[in-house]
Design goal:
With about 120 residues, the chain is mostly helical. The protein is built from four helices and no strands.
C-alpha cells in the first residue's frame, strides 16, 4: 500500500511540474506566434509601400531603357510580389498549430508515464 501511495504522490508532483513546463512552453510559442503575426503585418505594409514606390520608379527606369510600359510594370510588380510572398510564407509557417504545441512537455509526460508503468510493474 505504501508503494501505491508513493507512486500516486510522485505522479501528482510530476504532473504539476509538467503543467508548469507546458505553461512556460505555451508562453514561448505564443510569443513566436506574435512575432509571426508581426511578420505578416510587415509583409502587407512592405508590399503596399513597395508597390507604390517601386512601381513608379521601376517602371519609369525600365521604360527609359526601352521596355514597353506594360512589361516594365509587370517586372516591377512581380519582384515586389515575390518579396511579400516570402515574408507571408514565413509568417504562416510559424503560425501552424504543430509549431505552437508544447512538444517538449508532451514528450516529458509520455516519458514519465512510461517510467511510472515500469516502476509499478517492477
Amino acid at each position: 500500500m505504501h508503494l501505491v501511495t508513493d507512486v500516486v504522490s510522485q505522479v501528482g508532483r510530476i504532473l504539476r511540474k509538467e503543467a508548469a513546463l507546458a505553461k512556460a512552453e505555451m508562453g514561448e510559442n505564443l510569443s513566436r506566434a506574435g512575432l509571426a503575426i508581426g511578420l505578416l503585418v510587415g509583409a502587407v505594409i512592405l508590399g503596399l509601400v513597395a508597390v507604390g514606390v517601386l512601381a513608379g520608379a521601376g517602371v519609369a527606369a525600365l521604360v527609359s531603357i526601352g521596355w514597353a510600359v506594360h512589361w516594365a510594370a509587370l517586372a516591377v510588380g512581380g519582384g515586389v510580389a515575390l518579396v511579400a510572398a516570402i515574408l507571408a510564407a514565413k509568417g504562416l509557417h510559424d503560425l501552424k498549430p504543430k509549431r505552437l504545441m508544447p512538444n517538449r512537455s508532451i514528450a516529458n509526460v509520455k516519458q514519465d508515464v512510461a517510467l511510472m508503468k515500469e516502476q509499478i510493474n517492477a
